[in-house]
Amino acid sequence: MASASIISVIGTTDQESTGTSSDQAACLTGRPIHPRRGVRVSDPTKAFTSDSEFPPVTVAILVCPGYIPADIIGVHTLFGTTPNAEVHLVWKDLDEVIGFPTYPTRPTTTFAECPENPDVLWTGAVAPEMFDDEETLDFLADRGSRARWVGGNCGGTLLLGAAGLLRGYRATCNFQQKDLLTHFGAVPADGNVVVDRNRITAGPLTGSIEAGLWLAREFYGEDFAREMELQSEYAPEPLFGVGRPDLAGPELTRRALDNAAAMTRPYVEVIERAAKRLAAAV
């Protein structure tokens, strides 16, 4: 949201120029400070004004080595700039992880410290190795069993399936892998956002924004969600209008599938393995 995401520089706290240590500066501002270029920034959520009341909302978003930042940015931004929303970037520990393409990210909350009953549990696409990572799958299964909303987009939907969270639910993901949803008992469905009971899934990239707006409507009402859409200036105008197979036509779709085969192939084996483990656990 444009008006809620402006970062204002309000002073420097570099100890060489002010005599204030970075630790002291962090205490003064309550916000992260670069240890050598300490710049205090305002909290945009406190500057945001609205006639709406904001109920507390807790959002847990998985970040892990090889995750796709573009798949979480919509949910993260829409809730992260809304007052009274608590957004957790969760991973096993607080060490830096590298998203894909190269995107260094610092988790804010460990699996163990993540709230037990989040309002939203979200994951975007991840590296294939995550489908063999029992600790991650166990975390998703545990929090997902109690979350008010369980959501994912692109390949993140498949990870929710591997955690046993989509059996019997309609769901969607990226078109290159949608057929793999059946391995986890999910029912593949068309649509950039698909909602089935308390499961919300979406396609890649813009799917995170659209799902985030859908969830915002659930928590805050339609009027404020409409304002969120405007504040974000979310009015996509695709250059070619071929962003779905039905729009692209069979020739371009086949070429896209062929060119993506090397990327999607590693997922097939791990997903089949995860599906077998899931079936054995039932």
Structure description:
The chain is of the alpha/beta class and 282 residues long. The chain has helices at 15-18, 22-29, 44-47, 73-80, 134-144, 156-162, 206-220, 222-231, 245-248, 250-281, and strands at 9-12, 39-41, 57-62, 85-91, 97-99, 103-105, 109-110, 120-123, 149-153, 170-171, 187-188, 193-196, 199-202. A 7-stranded mixed β-sheet has the order 7-4-3-8-9-13-12, with helices on both faces. A two-stranded antiparallel ribbon has the order 1-2. A two-stranded antiparallel ribbon has the order 5-6. A hairpin with a 3-residue loop joins strand 5 (97-99) and strand 6 (103-105). The relative contact order is 0.12.
Which characteristics define this entry?
single chain; 282 residues; alpha/beta; 7-stranded mixed β-sheet; two-stranded antiparallel sheet; 10 helices; disordered N terminus
Rg of Cα set: 20 Å
Percent helix, as a range, is 25-40%
Fraction in beta strands: 15-25%
What is the chain-wise order of helices and strands? EHHEHEHEEEEEHEHEEEEHHHH
Number of β-strand runs: 13
Q: How many distinct helices?
A: 10
Short account of what is shown:
This protein has helices at 15-18, 22-29, 44-47, 73-80, 134-144, 156-162, 206-220, 222-231, 245-248, 250-281; strands spanning 9-12, 39-41, 57-62, 85-91, 97-99, 103-105, 109-110, 120-123, 149-153, 170-171, 187-188, 193-196, 199-202. By secondary structure, the protein is α/β, with parallel strands linked by helices. α4 packs parallel to α7.
